[in-house]
Amino acid sequence: MAPFYLKRLLLFFSSLITCATVYSQVTVSGTVYDITKKTPVEAVSVVSTSGSGTITDALGRYTIMVRESDSIYFSYQNKPTPKYPITVIGNLEAFDISIMIRIAVLPTVFVKPRSYILDSLQNRQDYSKIFGYQEPRLKSSMSTTPGGIGAGLDLGELIGMFNFKKIRRTLSFQNRLLEEEQDKYINHRFSKSLVKELTGLESPGLETFMKMYRPPYEVVLMLNELELGKYIQDTHKRFLKTSSQNDE
Predict the structure, then answer these.
(1) What is the per-residue pLDDT across 149-182, written as a single tens digit (0 to 9) for each?
(2) Residue 48 in contact with residue 27, Cβ under 8 Å?
(3) CA distances (Å), 44 to each of 63, 71, 124, in order?
(4) What angle do CA 79, 82, 93 make, to 5 degrees?
(5) How far is Cα 28 from Cα 46, in angstroms, rounded to an integer?
(6) Spatial distance between the Cα atoms of 126 and 113, rounded to a whole number of angstroms
(7) What is the pTM of this model?
């Protein structure tokens, strides 16, 4: 009989030890911040001396279950902090710490649509010499000499003034800049957003309509907002009629 009671006694003490082990565990929670104590740090390792561990989430928060006899420490990029004994932590539910790193936080950027007017002014400023360029001409008031070309003007100066290749390149560039500015003005007035709002068209019909009925610069320049809107609505009716005829 003795062995039977001995087994029951051993089982009783084993249960007590197990209960003691379970109830000696505590939960520690908190948030890990960078050196500024404002920015939470993600993916920081939280480790106890008994071997349990976890990592912080995207908000720098962590929760770990440890023994009362444990200490915990934090590690980020292989740089561990000192160990903190559980018995000296005042608030186990909010054990927040800051580690010696600085997280760069970019300011919020709001993207605004580009302004046609500001773009045009900047373009005019950048290429002011090209926009203001005029083909050189001899002044009618210049007096001529019997054996020369013009008073006070030698052949070298005349050749420099009439460097025809350079003049052609400059005038060609000037024309391209003017055409580009006119195209941007048309796009600014005859825009996808306006056409879509007035017609309800969606892709790919929207792109087809805008290509077919894109007004020339001179027309857009003459129309006010109401007239341009009426132009879009009238051409939209024509577009729908043409599309229905093609479907038939």
Answers:
(1) 444 555 555 555 567 777 888 888 888 888 998 9
(2) no
(3) 12, 16, 54
(4) 105
(5) 10
(6) 21
(7) 0.44
Please check whether residue 59 is in contact with residue 41, taking contact to mean a CB–CB distance below 8 angstroms: no
Phi-psi region of 196 (alpha: psi -120 to 50; beta: other; left: phi over 0): alpha
Q: Give the Cα-Cα-Cα angle 118, 115, 187 (nearest 5 degrees).
A: 115
- Whether residue 61 contacts residue 52, with contact meaning beta carbons closer than 8 Å, is answered with no
- Going by the DSSP 8-state scheme, the letter that residue 230 receives in this structure is H
Both structure tokens of 94: 């909010």
Q: Are 213 and 194 in contact (CB under 8 A)?
A: no
Helix (H) or strand (E) holding 74: strand 71-76
Could you tell me if 213 and 174 are in contact, meaning their C-beta atoms sit under 8 angstroms apart?
A: no
Cβ atoms of residues 34 and 101 within 8 Å: yes
Give percent above pLDDT 90 in the chain.
45
Please name each of the domains of the chain with its CATH number.
24-111 (2.60.40.10), 116-134+150-247 (no CATH)
DSSP annotation of 138 reads: -
**Between 140 and 126, the higher pLDDT residue:** 126
* Cβ 240 vs Cβ 206: under 8 Å: no
- First and final C-alpha spacing in the chain: 105
Torsion angle of alpha carbons 167, 171, 177, 183, nearest 10°? -160
